Amino acid sequence: MTSAITAPRGLKNVVVADTELGDVRGEQGFFHYRDRDATVLARTRPFEDVWQLMLDGALPTLEQSAVFARRIGELRVIPGGTVDLLRATVSEGADPLRALRIALSALGLDDRPMLDLPEEARREAALRYAAAFPTILAAAHRLANGLDVLDPDPEAAHAADYLRMATGAANPRDVAAVQTYLVATIDHGFNASTFAGRVIASAGSDMASCLLGAVGAFLGPLHGGAPSRALAALDAIGDPSNTRAWVRERIANEEKIMGFGHAVYRTHDPRSELLKQVAMGYDSALVRRATAVEREIESAINELKPGRRLYANVEYYAGVVMSEAGLPPSMFTPTFAVARVVGWTANILEQARDGKIIRPSARYVGPAPIPGV
């Protein structure tokens, strides 16, 4: 009999699978998609090209890029019945991500298990759902705020169409900022939502079910819900001169400082550094306050907890960039999901090819069982 292996809480530093999709090197402050530096891709490539890299393993030629973009544009147009369902169920102030779960369930009503599908059909399902995310989330947002739903434009680029459908406007600077953010957050190792999706995929389930599991994990404020909370912390601090007292109170109460620290990075988060550069391009009062508060928080933490360095993570400047691009806090996490669904679907497809169900064990620590009862 094989003896059990005891893993640390949260499976920290436990390798549970092999992947060709990318890696996060926390000590170096570096992450990559396939064999490409992710931050370079975010600066130089459109979202659709990086999407194709994640799915197919290589960046496309100009011709392949155009064909892929056209296909994604077509798939952003979702069935009218799904939009009608959202109109019937989305109430004022509703969370677009929770509405997304309803739409995914409806779209997946007739889906077959991936175990029974050939690879090409699995890939098509991945494209169909990932392309639908911005349309569903933008529609849910507008319905929750009493606004008319804007139809997708199949001819538009993915990031531009999402921003227009969500906010009603999409100027080039804001589109470029949002696209940089989207590319930078497509994938990031075996985070909670990615792992949740892969566990469901390992059972041979359908794509919608896998994505519902990923979205469920993503709704947690310790995961996808962090960008809006980081901006809320910035608002709570107000003037940068208040920062040290605010940090001192959080540390005294053993509260988490949202927007700072990361489970993997032990140095600066490269995504935060990238988005800080994007934010600086706006040169606004919010950006100037954010950079000043960042310096004060890092200095205060170093003073109050010597030897424990915490740096701004992706959520800190993500909220600033999205706010400057015209997206309200209620759309920060949904926008994150528009990017991350590409990583989720790539991981789900990779796991489905493995064919081995993920089935760990647990240690029972309750009362001793009573035989015969």
From TrEMBL:
InterPro entries: Citrate_synth-like_lrg_a-sub, Citrate_synth-like_sm_a-sub, Citrate_synthase, Citrate_synthase_AS, Citrate_synthase_bac-typ, Citrate_synthase_sf. Pfam families: Citrate_synt. GO terms for cellular component: cytosol. Keywords: Transferase. The active site is at residues 262, 315. Gene3D superfamilies: Citrate Synthase, domain 1 (1.10.580.10), Cytochrome P450-Terp, domain 2 (1.10.230.10). The keyword NAD does not apply. It catalyses: oxaloacetate + acetyl-CoA + H2O = citrate + CoA + H(+). Pathway: Carbohydrate metabolism; tricarboxylic acid cycle. GO terms for biological process: carbohydrate metabolic process; tricarboxylic acid cycle. Coiled coil: none annotated. One of its GO terms (molecular function) is citrate synthase activity. Belongs to the citrate synthase family. This is Citrate synthase. It comes from Tsukamurella strandjordii.
